[in-house]
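Subject: Interface between my chains keeps coming out wrong

I've been trying for a while to get a sensible model of this assembly. When I model each chain on its own everything looks fine, but I need the whole thing in one frame so I can look at the contacts. Pasting all components below, labels as-is. Any help appreciated, I'm running out of ideas.
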Amino acid sequence: MSDAAFLGMPSFPKAARNALADTQLRRNLAHATGTIRQKRADVVGELDDWEELREAGRAIKERTLRHLDHYLLQLEERVTAAGGQVHWARDGEEACRIVTDLIRATGEREVVKVKSMATQEIGLNEALADAGIAAYETDLAELIVQLGEDHPSHILVPAIHRNRAEIREIFLRAMAEYGAAAPADLGDDPRQLAEAARQHLREKFLRAKVGISGANFLVADTGTAVVVESEGNGRMCLTLPETLISVVGIEKTVPTWQDLEVFLQLLPRSSTGERMNPYTSTWTGTAADDGPRAFHLVLLDGGRTDTLADPIGRQALNCIRCSACLNVCPVYERVGGHAYGSVYPGPIGAILGPQLRGTSSEVDRSLPFASTLCGACYDVCPVKINIPEVLVHLRARVVDESRERRMPTPERLAMTAARWVLSEPSRLGTAQRAASAGGRLLSRRGRIGRLPGPLSAWTDARDAPVPAEESFRTWWRRTRDERT
Amino acid sequence: MRIALFITCFNDTLYPATGRAVVTLLERLGCTVEFPMEQTCCGQMHFNTGYQRECVPLVRRFTEVFAGYDAVVTPSGSCAGMVREYHGRVAEVSGDARLASAVQALPEVYELSEFLVDVLQVTDVGAYFPHRVTYHPTCHSLRMLGVGDKPLTLLRAVRGIDLVELPAAEQCCGFGGTFAVKNSDTSVAMCADKVRHVLDTGAEVLSAGDNSCLMHIGGTLSRLRTGVRTVHLAEILASTEEKPATDGPQPSPLPRRTTEGVRSR
Amino acid sequence: MSAREDVLSRIRRALADVGDTEAPADVPVPRHYSPGGTPPAGSQEAVKLLAERLADYGAAVQRVTAETVATAVARAIAVRGGDCVVVPRGFPREWQAGLAPERVLSDAPRLSVHELDRADGVVTTAAAAIAGTGTLVLDGGPGQGRRALTLVPDYHLCVVRAEQVVASVPEALARLDPLRPLTFVSGPSATSDIELDRVEGVHGPRTLEVLLIG
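Reply #2:
Try treating it as a single job with all components included. I did that and got this:
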């Protein structure tokens, strides 16, 4: 269902066009993002040290990333000392293989899963299915996506593109196939839908022998893993099975236990707009009489070291997956998550995806351009990732890679011509006179309407201005020149 | 104080009235403004579209043209933002240490409202503009430069003005430079919402500190025959009873149909 | 080369711009945020704030005294706890004085998940509470039991003493032992996955009731 990048995705503008045509989707998104934006603003407003927390969060991440090898080795040592086992994976395929082997060793054929971006990113469910292992998603939204054979479209609320009526329909149709059926009289009240999910999943929790999770944070100096959640499905998967396997990106490390005091304040307020999420679980290796007897931590690279190698792009690894940037993004609000073509949509997806995966696919090359650079994402980011800065940086990477092709694109020709014109004031003056003359030819009653060819991308919906008869510099020379 | 006007290539070509308004306004406030004729462009379009190498000669020219002034004033939040945030980066990309130090040595580049409020320390510029106006705080002014409510403070002091609040003002209009053509469907959808909010205010004039955003929103207002004019902040502030702003961007043609077409988009 | 060595060497290559002499502590981490302390730990204000914040996220809260706690426990269980409640080892004897012994389920010997699933509720103490966020912290200490006990039954009654209440997250973390499995509980389980409409009660206890002593 999910892969690093969803297979065969078109470029962002093409996918966005389809999404924009879906009025139901746009209504669902506008409602949901509007709600969460307000909730976040309210709880962030309660703290007068929010900016100091953000700065601390950013700095802790910077310290971690600049010394990631040191912290990972410390983490490995502490987890091992506490009875856990640490595995390393160069890429998603290797991580899937490690997890599959670990499950096979238990003899189990099914696992319950906590919502985890890392396991989605590596396509773990598909890999397990190929190995004959059923992986049950237990987060409500992930369940909706899994039952609906759909793609996630939001980091926090993967089924944000679905409304209650659609969810009811999915539950009625698909639950019976995977386990306990939905009650026949199921309504579309979110309360009833949540109750149906509780009933459907309970038997799976109670019989599960293997749980799979990610982690929001890994604490290097104690070897502690942290999962932040709301529903209690996470606690079920982390507590009841005999074996727990956590697949975690190497960048999720934080140096010290004390550092959590920053992130446990930043994350819930940025993410769900709550002062604190209902449940946060922390565990260090295994405990004698509590929870799984075996704990495996799979540390995933999967393009993170490539991202780390770029001093400007590196800050994308600060991300704590809160999704505040999605909720404020005017582009995301209108096109939704699917157009971004991977499990990481929105502004963070536009800078993370092309770095984790590279820019070989059409969609990954188009992602850095899927933004107006309005900066709303940077303003809300709890770890101060300067997303616009990374976007323009990645645009340059995409353009520079295209320079290696023999045939220049029309855009490159235009940009080269513009540079030539703008490099000399005299050329600019000549171009202005030409534009003015051309503009007057095209204009009617002071405006330029629909034009053919590439200009239609602008003029299909918007009039264009007519270049002035007299440019500013000509006016200045005519009226003021003697004074300069 | 030697003040240079950086008009921007965009205003120079398409919106010279804005530049004339800046000159009128600053001279009325007792400043002497110089216009270095050798100026061209800050390189923003190239930089933001990924053509960083093409930016290098533009940034080099900028540093040469504006070296030695005490302050540079520009009627564009996004161009001021480009200079302040990214000229250093372009210099870095060029690998030219001399360019990097030239960028370092550049005088402060101010967006107009910053210059008025922070440097000249005036909020009442003696303007008169008897119209119903709503103001769109452009993204780069708001979030990159952090001009805050300086433009609104200036507008509130204008005599005769009926300033009305724009709903969801801080949402981007969808311009985004080449985004408007590369992702034109999304851009148009964003602008439709912005236009709907503008119409909800009942304003006859939409103002902003960036003509690029005004061109975008105005292009839609004009296409829909809404009758709402776009006027740059500088032109409102330059306007007086004796010399009203008459030569601003053209008003869009009179309404041909109701605004229902916009509302239902 | 093992994956471990490979990943570590990729990291070192990626960090070519970081000087060899730079130590982790050389990267400054400014901690100018509030360390907490307002209201003071254990104060009446802190307890009051905790009560408000817990209630705000859907927990039922009662202020009680050392004298009335046993009665309050018995009454709460009678009203909401159903027929049988789990009482973990170490839960103060005097606090359970009002409970009928035949309604009390012990986790020694260890209950199976299915037995636990048949229990109606659980009553526990806590390790700490955070007033500003309305959070209870369980660390498996005396009177709290293993994590599954406060998870599988549908009703959780938690008794908190005033001196356990701190104002902020930093104060709470400083008091806790990271080597123990910890659970931070802020209200009953909840989801906002459907249209971002918050619904309380999914997989964890759907009712959280808190007795605050002092």
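Reply #3:
Confirming on my end. Chains B and C do not touch (no CB pair under 8 Å).
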